[in-house]
Amino acid sequence: MSGQLADKVVLVTGGGSGIGRAIAEACAHEGAAVAVADIDAAGGAKTCELIVSAGGEASFISADVTIAVDVEAMVAATVATHGRIDCACNNAGVEGKVGTTTVDYEEADWDHVVNVDLKGVWLCMKYEIAEMLGQGAGAIVNTASVAGLVGLAGSSPYVASKHGVVGLTKTAALEFATKGVRVNAVCPGVIDTPLVDRILARSPEREQFYLDAQPIGRLGTPEEVAAATVWLCSDQASFVTGHAFPVDGGFVAR
User: Fold this and answer.
1) pTM here?
2) In the chain, what are the domains?
3) Catalytic residue among 105, 127, 158, 210
4) Residues 170-219: pLDDT tens digits?
5) Of 9, 26, 44, 168, which cross-links 16 as Cys (Cβ 3.0–4.6 Å)?
């Protein structure tokens, strides 16, 4: 099969909806076999169905990225099914209670966001990179956010976690640059996804703020983030590592 990721195997976490689903579909379109991992079995199965119906190859793995044994098993299942992992897109994440100040955040809610959005990325890299080192090559793309590059009032654990993802990305990139493993991050702006739909359902007044925050004048699409992710995974980005790549309609250029 032809394409930027022809004959590669890609693991996508949080692949059951939104940006993760778009990444999984885009990777398959570019020739990859895709392992779709998600805590949402129905969503993950639907993504696989969409890929297969379009002529691609996909498998579903149920996994909670906050649990080490789940993540280790997820990587092992990908290798068992597809033979290896060439690329991993660590995309699973939650938004938390948007609009809650740092002072008002409850500890349990803070821990949940940080566990999924930061610890989850670390656990995934821990097991993915170990596998890639054995293969002698690999590419990882972590989904961070513009909230990993600037502050965003009312989202303290999300912002802290996404800043952490950018830091993890740069650190791992330095650690494994000479060992054939590249590590980058995409930093989406406000993207038209179920996550943003949930935020706007609770706080519809934020819609104009989101539109005004992006000089391009609209929300982004999951497919636009997926296109950047595919390129970072591909051999065309062979000299790119440790980069936090905004896909944000100009959000951080203001």
Assistant:
1) 0.95
2) 9-243 (3.40.50.720)
3) 158
4) 999 999 999 999 999 999 999 988 878 888 888 888 888 888 889 999 99
5) 44
